[in-house]
Amino acid sequence: MQRRFTLKALTAAVALAGAGVSFAQSGDTIKVGVLHSLSGTMAISETVLKDTVLMAIEEINAKGGVLGKKLEPVVVDPASNWPLFAEKTKQLLTQDKVAVMFGCWTSVSRKSVLPVVEELNGLLFYPVQYEGEELSKNVFYTGAAPNQQAIPAVEYLMSKEGGGAKRFVLLGTDYVYPRTTNKILRAFLKSKGVKDSDIDEKYTPFGHSDYQTIVADVKKFSAGGKTAVISTINGDSNVPFYKELGNAGLKAKDVPVVAFSVGEEELRGVDTKPLVGHLAAWNYFQSVKNPTNDEFVKKWAAYAKAKGIAGHKDKPLTNDPMEATYIGVYMWKQAVEKAKSTDVDKVIAAMAGQTFKAPSGFTAKMDEKNHHLHKPVFIGEVKADGQFNVVWKTPGPVKAKPWSPYIEGNDKKKDEPDGKSKS
């Protein structure tokens, strides 16, 4: 259903590409596509990423732009509509002729965009943690692969310091990222001796708002032994889920919840006092202390106030996908300058090994082969003020493994993109 548009749209677009349509520079500017949901269920998470791209562009333009040209953002709203992401991608590449796109949050939106960006040889920077099991020459993944978030988080929950969980509820939104991540986690847990009867897997649709029954079921399941919840709920459903946890009195000391898609922004609309001690696993938190992050948070606060960004002008918050977005924009800039061109193939080659001093306090590095960042991993506990207290972290950046070793056959897959996406 999501790809019904492609044949007709791509035939026209490929014809344009064959006629010499350039996705590079237009006059005195270089056009940059911003492809994030500004309405619908994912707007709660994605709107701020659009603003992060615009902030980075403004900073770069203030310092002379790229290759002597100013960056010109082209912002579109795919409106949490997965096929519309593909249509907007086609528009950005064939009509607006952008040199690069920064966008998507959900994996279903990314997979909708993928055939278009590959057919038209566009370039997408994807800034959110995801399930792995994909590699495309036209995509750079600046969020976490499972071994940089999901696996370390579950290892922590099973450890003595993390509470020694023996039973697990895998609770997610019903689409590709939660289902594939949970397939990986189920295989991982099995490798650690956890029985199928000690794993409860549940899914809800996008925009789901009634979690009373599910939270009651979790409470009942937890009576069978030390239990933890691994949440891959995405978008605005997180607000009613966390409110119901508070209503049910399900405290972190009894049944800890570790979330992979909940950060500072998603907790903004929630009374976090009953949630103190619940966990999130990311590669960055606003609360990490280092000079680079202090500067990043300060710049964002000033930008949000100057632009009157809703919510942030009074209470500026940063989060992991914002950091991943910011890194992506600057790494692309560096690659263009190294290549001395916005030509996609030249920029892709120049991206290998790019580094950037990240707000996490570590130097992020783009792997020379697999289009993923080397990133640190942090596990944070929710504090009463909606920030996170880091309780565990890796000693340094972790190299991404796009192909999980817990999925059968992945040992034979090549760890570098080769033509069309492999998944």
Automatic annotation (TrEMBL):
<feature type="signal peptide">
    <location>
        <begin position="1"/>
        <end position="24"/>
    </location>
</feature>
<dbReference type="InterPro" id="IPR017777">
    <property type="entry name" value="ABC_urea-bd_UrtA"/>
</dbReference>
<dbReference type="InterPro" id="IPR028082">
    <property type="entry name" value="Peripla_BP_I"/>
</dbReference>
<feature type="compositionally biased region" description="Basic and acidic residues">
    <location>
        <begin position="409"/>
        <end position="423"/>
    </location>
</feature>
<keyword id="KW-0732">Signal</keyword>
<dbReference type="Pfam" id="PF13433">
    <property type="entry name" value="Peripla_BP_5"/>
</dbReference>
<feature type="region of interest" description="Disordered">
    <location>
        <begin position="398"/>
        <end position="423"/>
    </location>
</feature>
<protein>
    <submittedName>
        <fullName>Urea ABC transporter substrate-binding protein</fullName>
    </submittedName>
</protein>
